[in-house]
Amino acid sequence: MTTEQNTHESQGAAPQDVTAQPQPTDIPVPDPASDAQQKLNELEAKHAEVADAYLRAKADSENIRRRAEEEMSKARKFAIESFADSLLPVKDSLEAAIAIQGATPEQLLEGVQATLRQLSAALERNKVVEINPSASTKFDPHQHQAISVVPADQEPNTVVTVLQKGYLISDRVLRPALVTVTAPK
């Protein structure tokens, strides 16, 4: 080749722009190790957050359980408080009756009747209800206890007399009424 050809070839070809084309070292290549480390850091932060939420929820449930146990203990301990409070006036009336010197039998009877009304009201306020079946009431083994069976002109298995009243407390039998019932014919 002659110098003229070399010059012609070099002049005919466009000069190459080195900065226009990206070089392989200029392209950012993701580093798998740094991506994994970043992902690990994110997961560790999320784990710490979830672990903290779990511990707080566990502590909350323990506190709720403990408070519920304390309330149940107090409820058992003071369940009778209202009932005892309603009986105190009855006790006061009985003590006042005993303290009266020289009371007539009529005055004592009047005081006892007033005290009985107080006691009945206190029982009623606390949902203690009398079971006092009238004669000819059908015998109910859930509320009555038959003491004896007597022949009578009534329908069989009905109450003849009440020997002792029974009591319910909130629809549950506290003590059944003691009754005599008619014999089957």
Keywords:
single chain, 185 residues, alpha+beta, Nucleotide Exchange Factor Grpe, Chain A, domain 2, three-stranded antiparallel sheet, three-stranded mixed sheet, 17% strand, elongated
Structure report:
The mean pLDDT is about 85. With about 180 residues, this protein is of the alpha+beta class. The radius of gyration is 48 Å and the shape is elongated. The strands form 2 sheets. The chain has a 3-stranded antiparallel β-sheet. A 3-stranded mixed β-sheet has the order 2-6-3, with no helix packed on it. The protein has 4 helices and 6 strands. The protein has a domain of about 60 residues: Nucleotide Exchange Factor Grpe, Chain A, domain 2. Helix content is about 50%, strand content about 15%.
Which secondary structure elements does this structure contain, and how are they paired or packed?
Blueprint: H1 3-12, H2 32-78, H3 81-99, H4 105-125, E1 128-131, E2 144-150, E3 159-164, E4 166-169, E5 172-175, E6 177-182
